[in-house]
Amino acid sequence: MPWKTLDDIDLDGRRVLLRVDINVPLENGKVTDSTRIERIAPTVADIRARGGRVVLAAHFGRPKGQVVPAMSLRPLVPELERALNAPVRFVDTADMQAARREVEQIPPGEIVLLENLRFHAGEEANDPGFAQALAALADIYCNDAFSAAHRAHASTEGVAHLLPACAGRLMQAELAALERALGRPQRPVAALVGGAKVSTKLELLGNLVGRVDHLIIGGGMANTFLAARGLEIGKSLAELDMLDTAREIERKATAAGCAIHLPTDIVVAREFRANALNETLPADACPADAMILDAGPASVGAIASVLESCRTLIWNGPLGAFEIAPFDAATNAAAIRAGALTQAGGLVSVAGGGDTVAALNHAGAAGQFSYISTAGGAFLEWMEGKTLPGVAALYAD
Q1: Which parts of 115-180 are beta strand (E)?
Q2: Beta 312-316 vs 348-352: how paired, if at all?
Q3: Could you tell me if 150 and 246 lie in one domain?
Q4: Mean pLDDT, to the nearest integer, of 309-334?
Q5: 227 neighbors 242 (Cβ within 8 angstroms)
Q6: Is position 217 within any domain?
Q7: For residues 177-202, average pLDDT
Q8: Which residues lie closer than 8 Å to 137 by C-beta, 6 or more apart?
Q9: Which residues are catalytic?
Q10: Could you tell me the pTM of the whole model?
């Protein structure tokens, strides 16, 4: 493994600056979804079990370098103490030298939570001085926030060059999963990409056609590709100014030996609402006054056949308007099939980005996938083939 993990570093008696993503939703000062907090617990427990002292560093919201009391991390202390099963001391960082003195006095077993890093303009600016101030708080740097790894900030990139650096357990799992999916995958490889717009996923599609064997396109994106092939799509969501781009992507896919799969049948309706009157038609028979809201059962069957022939699947986005029934049928069926193939040992399935997690949870299939990333932007940039600053920094000695 090209980056170091906690297993490669002696933690005994050392302070570990642990960059985490605990940007959780709050309502009336209370955490309403503690998933992100709970996911850092294994890394924290591992560090403490090996004699390390944990200094949690995180951001919250977008205060833009200003102190915004409503974005303080202080309200997270009770939930952190519950999830981590340890006392957590909150440390204000308005005066970094004072924060350093306080951190140095923390007894073994106690966890430190630093105030919102983005209260400092130097965080998002990746200011060397602020990175130095963060490095002065600890002996070791550990990044467990893959979701922030696409940002070159002081706490994700700058400080990693100033201390012995490693990946936390969450980061380690994420990188290992992505390496299995795109780095050295078992072939054939399929990518299922859905969502509304081709324009927001141009780099993603351009990278994937050269790296996968099958590209399955769904959602509003599929409508654009169908229109590019000369099919009528009625009032469907599409980007008609992207037709030439869609054709170019298809040409690149053909040249790379990547098969593009579009819906062969469609579910259409005249209005966008739950349980709207709908019908299933061939993909080339969309009425002028209707809109395509989902792929049909024949398309789902074709997708299932592709998945059954593959060893690796990367999933990003839904196949239709999964938020409302019955236009969630294709996404649900394909997700369930992918999950079953994964559980049977025939498929490595990695999913993430955008509405993907919500769609797979809605289908009841998320728990069946090999790995589900909640990283959003970082997951997409990795799929686009970009270098993530927070990951690249871990490669440095």
Answers
A1: 140-143, 165-167
A2: parallel
A3: no
A4: 95
A5: no
A6: yes
A7: 86
A8: 15, 17, 55, 99, 100, 103, 114
A9: 36, 197, 354, 377
A10: 0.84
